[in-house]
UniProtKB/TrEMBL annotation:
One Gene Ontology term, aspect cellular component: nucleoplasm
UniProt cross-references to InterPro entries, sorted A to Z: Macro_dom, Macro_dom-like
Transmembrane intervals: none
One annotated GO biological process: DNA damage response
Name of protein: Mono-ADP ribosylhydrolase 1
Listed Pfam families: Macro
Organism expressing this protein natively: Leptobrachium leishanense (Leishan spiny toad)
Stretches assigned to the Macro domain: 1-152
PROSITE patterns in alphabetical order: MACRO
Gene Ontology MF terms: ADP-ribosylglutamate hydrolase activity
Lineage: Eukaryota, Metazoa, Chordata, Craniata, Vertebrata
Length: 168
């Protein structure tokens, strides 16, 4: 879940989540004392159908990510997955972190997201029942569906459930 560094005067996907969750989410976020780029924090889901919301601050790349931006984006996914495990959450859904107003190129971000999730699952094989990628735009959905088999090839012995959700 993307969340602006230092608070939640939210825009983009983050703004939609805050609006759907209701005012108690903003109130709880104000108690978190900010969130650094690459860090993740957890709150209740309030009016959302999710029990919890994991907030992660993606890097502001403005179309030209630096090597440090890639590491921070990896940390967003890794730290979110760690928080989910620590809180015994068996499923998690991710938007395409940092690709909207933060300007991280979608192609690069997809590789970072899928690669990081794959590496985490290799070390934590029994921690999740389902991980869902929820693209906001059709171009991102197409991109993830194209890249997905490179990171998660079909394997009849593989019990991991990682999905790219279809846009409604």
């Amino acid at each position: 879940m993307p969340c602006p560094e230092g608070g939640s005067d939210a825009a983009g996907v983050d703004g939609c989540i805050h609006e759907a969750a209701g005012p108690l989410l903003k109130l709880e976020c104000s108690t978190l004392r900010g969130c650094e780029t690459g860090e993740a924090k957890i709150t209740c889901g309030y009016l959302l159908p999710a029990k919890c919301v994991i907030h992660a601050v993606g890097p502001v790349a403005r179309g030209k990510p630096e090597p440090s931006d890639e590491e921070e984006l990896k940390n967003c996914y890794k730290n979110s997955l760690i928080l989910a495990v620590e809180n015994k959450l068996r499923s998690v859904a991710f938007p395409c972190i940092a690709t909207g107003i933060y300007g991280y190129p979608s192609e690069d971000a997809a590789d970072v997201a899928l690669g990081t999730i794959r590496m985490f699952l290799e070390e934590n094989t029994d921690k999740f029942d389902r991980i869902v990628i929820c693209p906001f735009m059709k171009k991102d959905e197409d991109l993830y569906l194209q890249r997905f088999p490179q990171y998660f090839p079909l394997d009849t012995d593989d019990d991991s459930d990682v999905y790219v959700s279809e846009l409604l």
